[in-house]
Structure formats: structure tokens, C-alpha cells
Amino acid sequence: MSLTLVTPTERTCERCGRTEIWDDDVGSWRLAVDDDGNPQAIGSPYCIHEWDINGRFVPFEDESSAAEA
Ligand SMILES: [Zn+2]
Q1: What is the whole-number distance in angstroms between the Cα of residue 20 and the centre of ligand 1?
Q2: Are residues 43 and 13 in contact, defined by beta-carbon separation less than 8 angstroms?
Q3: What's the predicted TM-score (pTM) here?
Q4: Residues whose CB falls within 8 Å of the CB of residue 54, separated by 6 or more in sequence, listed in order
């Protein structure tokens, strides 16, 4: 089988669908591209990205404490 697995080195925005991969060379996320160098999913530049990393690593999600200040 040849499945495209979502690993901790790849993240997808749940809002706009942007896909980024971790680039060890530069130590930051960058837009995922295919074998020809074409962007996979750019998403929206105005999106407040909500990254889904393997469906488990969600650092800022805490609905129970979302009270207005
Ligand atoms: Zn987004």
C-alpha cells in the first residue's frame, strides 16, 4: 500500500486546507510541494490557521477555559 500518512512533520489547516511540512534545514514550516515543486494546498492568506497535526497535537485548544476576559 502507498498511503499518504500525516506525520508530526506535516500539518494541515482545518480551516483553509493549507498543507505545510517541517523543513529541518531552515528549522521552520514551509508550504508543502509535490515532486515537481508545485504547491499542494496554499490555503487562504487571511486564514487564522488551525493546524491539525496527526489529530492529537493541538497546543491551544481548551474550550473549557475560553471565558471572556
Ligand atoms: Zn488556514
Answers
A1: 10
A2: yes
A3: 0.60
A4: 6, 7, 8
